[in-house]
Design goal:
single chain; elongated; 3 strands; 11% strand; 3 helices
Length: 100
């Protein structure tokens, strides 16, 4: 399956593209709901995030999102041929011991 390119974060005309994304922008970028990112953050799963500014707004680095997606692809046997159990070399079983 060809690699799917990720869409660029949405930005309205006149705004500067930033390396930091809000939860909503990160969710749009990943094709997820903001709720999913909040749940993953609470469970300490998903892409790395941090709090920024005096109000502690949750933010994501764009480069961290891309790295996280690459990690997910490598951990999936359908995307990583090295993990595909159908292409793994056959392992010989050890002979069964018989009781006397």
């Amino acid at each position: 399956m060809p690699a799917r390119s990720l869409p660029a974060p949405t930005a309205s005309p006149g705004t500067v593209r930033t390396a930091f994304l809000t939860v909503k922008d990160a969710a749009d970028y990943l094709g997820l709901s903001p709720h999913t990112l909040y749940v993953w953050r609470h469970r300490r799963q998903g892409p790395p995030s941090f709090r920024m500014g005096p109000r502690g707004r949750v933010m994501y680095r764009l480069e961290a999102l891309d790295a996280w997606v690459r990690e997910q692809e490598q951990a999936d046997s359908r995307s990583n041929a090295a993990l595909n159990p159908l292409t793994a070399p056959r392992q010989e079983r050890s002979p069964r011991l018989t009781r006397a």
